[in-house]
Structures are given as C-alpha cells and as structure tokens.
Amino acid sequence: MYGDPYAAARRDMVDQQLVRRGIRDLRVLDAMAKVPRQRFVPEEYRHLAYDDSALPIGECQTISQPYMVAVMTEALGLEPGSRVLEVGTGSGYQTAILAELAAQVYTVERFDTLSENARALLCELGYRNILSRVGDGSKGWPEAAPFDAILVTAAAREIPEELEAQLAPQGRLVIPIGDRTLQDLYRVSREGEGWRMENITSCRFVPLVAEAGWPED
Ligand code: SAH
User: Fold this and answer.
1) What residue numbers bound the domain in which 36 lies?
2) Does 109 contact ligand 1 (Cβ within 6 A)?
3) How many domains does the structure of the chain reveal?
4) What digits encode the pLDDT tens for the residues 10-30?
5) How far is the CA of 193 from the centre of ligand 1 (A)?
6) Is 130 in the pocket of ligand 1 (CB under 6 A)?
7) Which CATH number is 89's domain given?
C-alpha cells in the first residue's frame, strides 16, 4: 500500500523470518506480506509489530510470533475453497491470514473483549468471510462442521475429541500439544480408519482453557 509506513518492515519480516527459515508456500508468504500486523497489536507495541516474537494483547494473552503463524498456516494446506475453524481468535491476526487463503473462516475465543476487538477490526479491514463467536472452542462449531482444516492456537494436553469429530475426511488439524510451558506442534490427519500424527516443531503457546487443556489460573 502506497504510504504505508510499515511496508518495509513487513517485507523484511517476510524475507528474513519466513523465507530464510524455510516457509515455501507462496500463498502463505503473500498473505503475510499483505495483512497489516501493526493493526492487531496494542498501540504501545506497534513499533514492535514486525519483530520476531509474540506480543501481549491483553487478558494475559499474546499474538503469535509471525514465523509460528506462517508454519501453522502452511501446515494446514489451505485451498481457496477451504472451510476453516480457528480455536483462539486472540488478536484476530491469524484469523485474517486464514481469511486471505480460505473460503470461510469460523473462529472461537473465550474472552468476549478479545473477540469483540478482533471482530470490529476484521470488519474494518474488509473481511467478509469470517464468522466469530465467544465460547469454548475445544468443543468446535458443530453446526458448521465438517471443516477442511482446524487450527488450535493455544496449548492443549491432548486432542479434543470434538475437534477430531468435526474434521472432514481429508481434513487436517494443527494443534500444539504438551505441558503448560512447552509443546510440540502436531498435524493430525485422517488416514483410513486411523490418524496420522506428524510432529512439526517445538513451540510455546498460552494454555487452552478447556477439558483437553488446563483449568483457569
Ligand atoms: N491466533 C491468536 C493467538 C492468541 S493466543 C493471535 O495470533 O492473536 C490464544 C488464544 O486462545 C487466547 O486469546 C485465549 O484466550 C484463547 N483460548 C484459550 N482457551 C480457549 C478455549 N477453550 N476456547 C477459545 N479460545 C481459547
């Protein structure tokens, strides 16, 4: 965008944090080069919006590190017609990336403040293919299932059964699983009668507050 003071920082982020570390999917790189991440972080952190790190967004939650957003999005293997569920809307940044790449995005957040802020911003930025709601996302969104892809952006102890059940036959679920402080990012795909689990990378997410995660602090 002409006159966007963050354009250079965003381009550098894509080159240095994503391309150099092996993100190959051009659609993912294009989406990350387009979405104005600075709009999704609080005013006082705006100058850090393209840093190689997660940042606080209120309610003790964080917007994920750009590289992690790219890794998770690439692992979902989205197509223009995909229907996606996101658990943990947070700032809405990851939601916007998903909305750039898929036909329809459903996103669930447990804090109504975060959900409402994200909804207003995504609407202002012109996204019309996102539906959001407040609640326990580990239960999924049964009325809208099945999903081609499901992304959980908070750390779980185990795979929530409802999410598995809401995956389409060729569907992929990307989810951090581990303990409260350190997890591995898994891609879970249906394979015949069973499931195939691939460990993508180690990671650090805020806890999923749910049966399949942890109780509130
Ligand atoms: N994708 C977001 C990540 C936010 S951090 C971003 O990049 O901004 C993870 C989010 O998951 C937090 O906002 C947290 O409140 C939310 N969360 C935790 N447990 C949840 C649950 N059971 N259902 C829905 N959201 C949950």
Assistant:
1) 7-203
2) yes
3) 1
4) 999 999 999 999 999 999 999
5) 30
6) no
7) 3.40.50.150
